[in-house]
Amino acid sequence: MSNIALSNEEIRRYSRHLIMPEVGMAGQRRLKQGSVLLIGSGGLGSPLALYLAAAGVGHIGLVDFDVVDESNLQRQIVHGTATVGKPKTASAQARMHDLNPFVEVTTYETQITSANALELLQPYDVIIDGTDNFPTRYLTNDASVLLGKPNVYGSIFRFEGQATVFSPKDGGPCYRCLYPEPPPPGLVPSCAEGGVLGVLPGVIGTIQATEAIKLITGIGETLVGRLMLYDALAMRFRELKLRRNPACPVCGDHPTVTTLIDYDQFCGIFPESSTLGSQDAITPVELAALLQSDERPYLLDVRNPYEVEIATIPGTDKLIPVDQLQERLNELDTALEMVVYCRSGVRSGRAVELLKSAGFRKLKNLTGGILRWSSDVDASVPRY
Amino acid sequence: MAVTITIPTALRQYAAGKATVVLEADNVGALLRGLVEQHPTLGKHLFGEDGRLRSFVNVYVGDEDIRYLAGEATPLQAGETVSIIPAIAGGTR
Which residues of B touch A78 (CB under 8 A)? Predict the structure, then answer.
């Protein structure tokens, strides 16, 4: 294990590690020998990629299928303005190579799926979950448990983060012990809908990187069996106890999930989940023409008030956030032709479904929302 | 028995934006029912149609999960903190 050698250049580079007895030459050789798979090169993946490369983890794999977008750079610090539009894996790899040419970085520009997950995870010692959705989190968990690998978990929302290490082989719980089932789609907002403080993934991703380094070097006390909670607004860390559930379907005493399943289905996500068809949709160009005509429709915005301050469609008649719609139906008139919009068309689609089920008939959902209004009709409306 | 209950960011919009609520209750079930009485829209986020706590919402008394205590019957002491910890998935792509 520790017969791998460090060159004189590496010894100079890692000197601040080497002079600590807890790491020393043995720990640094373990890092060089170690391998980590980072699933997601976004907010959490950014500090992870940078610190793990800097620390000298010998082999780092990056899985991501996305490209760098301007709106990522508020928090995804491994990328830069120069790599906007480029694949996140290649963007991160270049930065990591510049930071530390002694580490090998393998990129997988693909989406992790039930078909490729075991093959992707197999070569690595430690798995890190830096993903942004429930299906991938359950997939990452189950694949890690099946392969007996520790899964360093981190998750964030707005000002709050969670981190732990799931490692049933060390006696700890897995993600399914903590949350046996995911929330139904739409009940918990995503970061794209809910927003996130840019430095928050920096804190949580750095905790994940710390845990990965401890797992590889074998020092310290890991987060196995403890859930770390961080509240950036209160600036408070708290710790909760996590226990392995003997009845867990994946890591329990009598597991019922022994191969990877369909995680979209498990999370209630179906390709045809919407009951809306093309007759329920209107494009921004069509709406713009209608707003100029005598048949001007009633324009309903279902976003949150603070989004209206960023951008709005001129002539909007009413604002009712989608979460309040059910309670405020009496403020709307079923007789009016109505167009419903939000930022991208997702929330307004939910709103149209809700209004239809409440008896409204003359409804259209604005396809692509205010984002497409900006690109197709009025470029002076900012995109956010 | 006055007990503090912490509301996670994701659910604060259904609790008038509050981060904590102080309520009188002898056990966890009564506490949660009292909370939902004050903030009815929280109800569907905490409880399923079967009236049971949803499986992506965990409730802790101090640092202990009520699933490993006495569930909703878990008794509460004055001054205790009860936390609602829902599953969050963000990593920000």
Answer: none
How many inter-chain contacts (A to B, CB under 8 Å) are there? 115
Give residue-wise pLDDT tens across range A19-63: 999 999 999 999 999 999 999 999 999 999 999 999 999 999 999
Residues in chain A within 8 Å Cβ distance of B87: 134, 155, 178-179, 182-183, 188
In this prediction, residues A99-105 reach a mean pLDDT of 98
Per-residue model confidence as pLDDT tens digits over A151-164: 999 999 999 999 99
Whether the CB-CB separation of A113 and A135 falls below 8 Å is answered with: no
Q: Quote the pLDDT of residue A130.
A: 93
Per-residue model confidence as pLDDT tens digits over B54-71: 988 999 999 999 999 999
In the numeric block, which tokens belong to residue A345? 């068309």
Question: What residue ranges define each of the domains in chain A, with the CATH number in brackets?
Answer: 34-266 (3.40.50.720), 278-376 (3.40.250.10)
Name which of A42, A154, A241 is nearest B64 (Cβ-Cβ): A241
Compute the nearest-CA separation of B64 from chain A (Å).
6
- What span, in angstroms and rounded, lies between the C-alpha atoms of A92 and A23? 26
| Mean pLDDT rounded to a whole number for chain A | 93
Q: Which amino acid is at A341?
A: Y
Domains annotated on chain B, with CATH: 2-86 (3.10.20.30)
Residues of A catalogued as catalytic: 191, 342
Is residue A305 classed exposed, middle or buried when 0-12, 13-18 and 19+ CB atoms within 10 A define those classes? exposed
